[in-house]
Amino acid sequence: QDYTCIKLKVLEFSPEAQAIVAANKELQGKKIFMVAATLRPETMYGQTNCFVGVDLKYGIFKTRNADELFLMTERAARNMAFQNLSPSNGEVVKVADLVGRQLVGTQIQAPLSSYPSVYVLPMDGVLATKGTGVVTSVPSDSPDDFATMMDLKKKPDYYKIQPEWIASYEPIPIINTPAYGNLAAPTVCAQMKINSQKDKTQLALAKDAVYKDGFYNGVMIIGEHAGKSVQEAKPLIRQMLIDAHQAVPYNEPENLVISRSG
Ligand code: ZZB
Fold it and tell me: In the prediction, which pLDDT does 93 show?
């Protein structure tokens, strides 16, 4: 899989994560990025938050740039070490350990998003075996993300989040499609009566429908490539993010990829 890894700059860690970072000499004065693997770089305009798995283990790793560290799973760090992203080929240097739960409430800057800063929130189905274990959330175009957002809004206490971390981050219209309009995921979730991230079977169908319609028939309605088809805009936006040092290409061997939909 040819992923684009989006660099989500940490603006302010949650108090628990901050305590870990502050106690670590290697992290003083450094930029730390939560790194999210996506197959849809053209949707980055619609980011409203990022997701972690609360029980997943994450690390903060050195990169080939001495001032920048990446926060992700160790598995992703190992893969990146063979893609010219670590200090030297094959070398993985972890400087801190964190659990997903400790990251919830962290504020990050999501490149291209209309929201200047967004929060790290919990999602049930984040796979340790795919991408970086950090998932950027685009509820306008990803049914999984929209369904999770509905759960978090309904039950903030249960998910141990503050209501304001999600309340003022509505889905942003970024792509228009003939079948589902300009908020494809909310539309398809309403049509299919999906109310929760737990509706897995329905969500797999919804994702399939939205993916196909978005990719083959979608037109960008935001950003510097507004008016272009999704197919045309995707590689241009990917390259724009890479050139701006806001993303890096990341490849994952096909046989190691396990799809979220099972
Ligand atoms: C932004 C985005 C916007 C995504 C969208 C999808 C959609 P696939 O096709 O099943 O391989 N993802 C990445 N890593 C993980 C993980 N560790 N656990 C769970 N989900 C993960 O799915 C690739 C997508 O799965 C990635 O692209 C990412 O979400 C998520 F509008 O990034 B995507 C209709 C889908 N729309």
Answer: 98
Q: What is the pLDDT of residues 13-30, one digit of tens each?
A: 999 999 999 999 999 999
From residue 116, give the alpha-carbon distance in Å to each of 18, 112, 142, 169, 174.
Answer: 21, 9, 21, 11, 16
Q: Is the dihedral of CA 43, 113, 5, 260 positive or negative?
A: negative
CA 52 to chain CA centroid, nearest Å: 9
CA of 97 to the centre of ligand 1 (A): 24
CATH architecture for segment(s) 2-172+222-256: Alpha-Beta Complex (3.90)
Lowest mean pLDDT, pick from 149-153, 173-177, 255-259: 255-259
d(CA 241, CA 238): 5
Could you tell me what percent of the chain has a pLDDT over 90? 96
How much is the pLDDT for 260? 53
Question: Which ligand 1 atom is at minimum distance from the Cα of 259?
Answer: 10
The domains of the chain are located at 2-172+222-256
Decide: helix, strand or coil at residue 121: strand
* CB distance 210 to ligand 1 below 6 Å: yes
> Does the pLDDT of residue 258 top 80, yes or no?
no
